[in-house]
Fold this sequence. Notes:
Jelly Rolls, 5 helices, nine-stranded mixed sheet, eight-stranded antiparallel sheet
Amino acid sequence: MPGSPRRFSPPPGGSAGSGLPRRVRPRWRAPITMATVFATGAAVGLLAAQGGGATGTVAGPAMAAAPELANGKDPNATVLSGGAQWWIWSPGPGELGANPQAFSFDQVVNGKSVKRVGVGIVRNEDTPDASLATKYLISENSGQIFNDYSGLPSNFSMVAPYRLRNGDVLSSNFVPTANGDGTDGFAMFRSSDVGKTWTEYRAKIVEDKWQFGWYRIHRDMLELDDGTLLLGAYGNGTVNGVRKGYSLILQSTDGGKTWTQRSAVNGGTSYSTNELGFGRTSDGKLVALMRGDEPAPRPPAMPLTQAFSDDDGKTWRDVKPYVPPAGFPNNGIMPKPMLMPNGQLLLTYGRPDNNVVVSRDGTGRTWDEGNMLYSRYPGEDPLRRWMGSSGNMDIVQRTNSTALAFGDRCHNVWMCREYSHDNAVWAKVVDAKGPNIGKIDLITKANEGVVKVSGSVAAADARFPEQRLQGAIDGSGEYRAAARFSDRAAAARGLTVELDKAYPINRFGLMMGKGEPGAAKVQFSMDGKTWGRPVRTGMRTDYAMRYNDFAPQQAKFVRITGDGTTPLTAVTELELYAAGTYTFENDAVGSIPRGLKDTRYALTADVGNVPYYQHSKTRLALQDNDQTARAQATIPNPTPGATQQISFGYEGWGYGSGAIWEILGKDASGKEVVADRLLFAPVYNPNRHVVKQWDGAAWQVIGEAGPFVPNKGWMTITLNSTGQGTTITKDGTTMGTSSKRLAQVTQFTGLRVFTGEKPEDVGNMEHSYDDITFGAS
């Protein structure tokens, strides 16, 4: 049955020690020919192992061609991708629900840092005279599962939810209304327990610069270092004698009780705008994106408008049309920029479709890559192309490099008629990965007790449980989700991370106290006593991690201390990378891992029934359910050499006839060839694994080792290649050394892996690899 251990028995006439498992034969099989072997990426020797090309034909349905081999991105490339999507609310036809607005706040559950994610779904018609009706959902586990939530009233629209440095959460209503004294005001809710309970009050807009006919509160809130709060809004009014639509920044110096006009983002320009999204950039500026103020709700001709502020939103410059990545629309609605802890700046917007784009350096000066997250429209003519999904969407942080995007299937009443009003709201994972492939999964290792963090830091309390030692590696870039030093002396002693083993560290990402000037030095040690030459950050103010690359330093301990006259206030986030190692922790789930070549059915996986290897949750999975072609991947050696040692975790969920491992190298002419071809096969009885070598004509057993590792069980494999052969070690036990080299090589260049001895040997087969580490033997 699916998921149960695969039992292996010797084939008829074979011995138990032969290492060849009995295979379940398919009802039909395509003839195996020389062309088939080459088309599936197999070697000629594998054909001979089956007794030559088949000549008979068995009737059966036509087989589709195997997919072409594909390469992962360059290891130094950044990645933007839309991953898993699921429906968090999906009622029957006729039930209105669209325009999701969301928040994510840090909390600690059972000792682990997770996000509390809330979503408000608008259930009223999108008309000015409709009474507000909002449905709320809540997730206590970073958006995995959502449940109904009644903590906020249905006549509140939950705009710009934001957590202050003092722990309070504020959120405003979308539509201000008149106060009794003729001023405008709006409902606000405050929570001191991360959105579990709320208190309502009424905030007041004080018009100290311009008179506006009406306001809407829109999108984002931000707290400055001095406690001033900024809040986005839009409306129609007169600024410097010009009446039009304006995108505004409101400010409050009394904790959100009263708000005054700080700036009109598009003031002094020809652009008329409304919906506003704004936020920090990696270089500390503010960036704002604005929707064009169109005279009628039709496909917008005016592009989104972008602007920057160097003085925290008092004045704005470079107000000009937004320039998207190639192939993406420059117009749309509901723009939302969001700086990720790893320094990638995301921007979502919709209509047409639901889009996310990224500014790789986090500054927003250029938008480099895009991903269309969801598309649904009833026709190609301009207006119907604009319909379907409303395009109203939101995005919140999940980890230092992943976010949750939210959108809808279609708008309330209008734009949904052709779909019988089948409203629903979706969530989707967005991966925004920076360069490099050797990221160490510090937080999973710390949660499982194999990585230790020490230092004198401010203690966690009821309001800030995330403010603790593990806050330095928890994947959150929020102000309190940090290891905050209790005083200058504590900062001088610093923070120490003890790793589970020694790694060749060649890169780190560090975010010091969020928005606070500081300088740090990072040092490495094998024993925690003798420290190497420090890597210095220099004086800076961090709003996201910044990265340093250097020659690999073998280290089991990492120490971060203050460096200079300005004290180090906190370590908000730390990442470490190992040279020459494919860990898959910095690859987008569902994608081909970066750096891999000539892959088929190879992807990055982090969930499922396979446990973690070495306390890190992401792995390479080869998923083979194709009777015409094996799953495969080539893993290049980052530093080719005259010898090669490869160590990795291997797991065979549905071993089939085992895994084929090809040791690659370059011959004297510079051509890449197979030096050794190995078959690592299970032997259920007697309780062993066997390794064989292809000698050019047949498989030859070169060694065995036990015990047999069942499905979902990891083992550590080492392949040590020299000029004489390759020695195979399983969990520290040497199995044997190859003696028949297929080709002589002058330089070893990597490893190629396959599922199964034969292409048709499939069924519930998934081979996993993790922590593939290259070094000289």
